[in-house]
Design a protein that fits this description.
241 residues; Nuclear Transport Factor 2, Chain: A; Glutaredoxin; 4-stranded antiparallel beta sheet; 9 strands; periplasm; Thiol:disulfide interchange protein
Length: 241
C-alpha cells in the first residue's frame, strides 16, 4: 500500500468509524487514557491499515496501541520497503489548515515579482530563526508573503510588533528590524493592533514556535526553511495541481 492509498484509507476510516467501531474505540480510549497522564484527553482512536495498530491522537500528536491497549508505541511507523513515513504523513494531514480562513487583513503583506507563490508565516520579532528566514525570503522572487506578528517570546515582542504595525510603512519597518536590527519608532498611544487576535489565532492553530510557515494548500512547516527547501516545496505543490 502506497502513501496516498494509506492516507485515503485512513480518511475513509474516519468517515465510517462512528458507525462501525464506536464500541471498540470507546473501550480502547477508556483503557489507554489513564495511562497517558493526568489531564490528557484522547481526541480520537482509529484502526490503522498497518500491523493491527490503533492510532491514538492527542491534539496533533500521534501514538499507537494494540486492540487491548496493553502496549503504547511512541514513534514513527515507516514502511520498511518504500521508506514511507506513515506517521509523518498523518501528522502533516492533521496539521493542515484552511488557508482562506486566515485573517490576511491582519498580516503584513509583501509581494515580489508576480506574487503567484503564496505563504503565510507566524514570526516573533525576537526570534533568531525568523530573522534567518526573513533573509531567505529577501532573496526569493515571485512570492507573496503574509506575516503574522506572533508575540510569544517576551513582553518586548509585543512592544516591537506594535511599533512595526503602527509604522507608516509596516513592511519597511519589519525588514529594517529583522534584517538590519534597526528598531522601529515608538507607536502612538492611540494606535491599535491585532496582536491579541493573532495570539489567539496562533494558539488555536497550535503554533508553538516561530517561524511557522503555512502554504496555500494548508500544509505547514514548523521552523525556518532555506531557499532550496522552499523551491522544492513550491515545486511539489505545483506538480500536485
Amino acid at each position: 500500500m502506497n502513501l496516498k492509498q494509506c492516507v485515503a484509507l485512513l480518511a475513509l476510516t474516519f468517515t465510517g468509524v462512528v458507525f462501525a467501531q464506536t464500541a471498540q474505540e470507546s473501550a480502547i480510549k477508556k483503557l489507554i487514557e489513564p495511562k497517558l497522564g493526568q489531564g490528557v484527553k484522547v481526541d480520537s482512536i482509529i484502526k490503522t491499515p498497518y500491523g493491527g495498530l490503533y492510532e491514538v491522537r492527542v491534539g496533533s500528536d500521534i501514538l499507537y496501541t494494540d486492540e487491548k491497549a496493553q502496549y503504547l508505541f511512541v514513534g514513527n511507523v515507516i514502511d520498511a520497503k518504500s521508506g514511507t513515513n506513515y506517521t509523518k504523513a498523518r501528522t502533516d494531514e492533521l496539521s493542515k489548515i484552511k488557508f482562506s480562513d486566515l485573517p490576511l487583513e491582519s498580516a503584513l503583506k509583501m509581494v515580489k515579482g508576480d506574487g503567484k507563490r503564496v505563504i503565510a508565516v507566524f514570526e516573533d520579532p525576537n526570534c533568531g530563526y525568523c530573522k534567518r528566514f526573513r533573509k531567505t525570503l529577501a532573496g526569493m522572487d515571485n512570492i507573496t508573503v503574509y506575516t503574522f506578528l506572533y508575540n510569544i517570546l517576551s513582553e518586548d515582542s509585543t512592544v516591537k510588533s506594535k511599533n512595526v504595525w503602527c509604522s507608516a510603512d509596516r513592511n519597511k519597518a519589519w525588514d529594517d528590524w529583522m534584517l538590519n536590527g534597526k528598531a522601529p519608532s515608538a507607536a502612538p498611544a492611540n494606535c491599535t493592533t491585532p496582536n491579541e487576535k493573532i495570539l489567539a489565532l496562533g494558539q488555536k492553530l497550535r503554533v508553538n514556535g516561530t517561524p511557522a510557515i503555512f502554504f496555500a494548500d494548508g500544509s505547514r512547516v514548523p521552523g525556518a526553511m532555506d531557499a532550496k527547501g522552499l523551491e522544492e516545496k513550491f515545486a511539489s505543490l505545483n506538480s500536485a495541481k
